[in-house]
Amino acid sequence: MISQSMTREYGSHGIHVAHVVIDGGINGDRLRNRAPTLVNERGEDGLLGIDAIADTYWNIHRQQRSAWTQEVDLRPFKETF
Fold it and tell me: CB atoms < 10 A from the CB of 3, how many?
C-alpha cells in the first residue's frame, strides 16, 4: 500500500501521511451546477459537506503523534446502497 510505504519513509521526518477516501458526492458548486437533480434527491444528509471534509483534514493535521491515523473513509450520513 502506498500510504504505508510513504509513512515509513517520511514518518521519521515528522511528516504525517494519511490516505483519505472520499466516497460520495461533495456538496459544492460543481455538483450543484452539474447535477442539481442528484443534489435534490440525496438531500443534505446524502452529500459530504465541504467544511466537514476540511475539518477531517485539519484533525489529521492536529493529531497527537502517539496516535496517528493513516487511513480515513468519509461517507455521507445517508448512504445509498
Answer: 13
Q: Report pLDDT digits (tens) over 31-71.
A: 999 999 999 999 989 999 999 999 999 999 999 888 888 89
Nearest to 42 by CA among 66, 25, 59, 58: 25
Stated as kind and residue range, the H or E segment containing 74 is strand 71-74
Beta carbons of 1 and 8 less than 8 angstroms apart: no
- Identify which of 66, 51, 60 has the alpha carbon closest to the alpha carbon of residue 17: 60
- Number of Cβ atoms within 10 Å of the Cβ of 47: 21
Half-sphere exposure of residue 74, counting CA atoms within 13 Å on the CB side? Answer: 21
- Amino acid residing at 48: L
Show the cell assigned to 7.
509513512
Q: Are strands 48-49 and 26-27 parallel, antiparallel or unpaired?
A: parallel
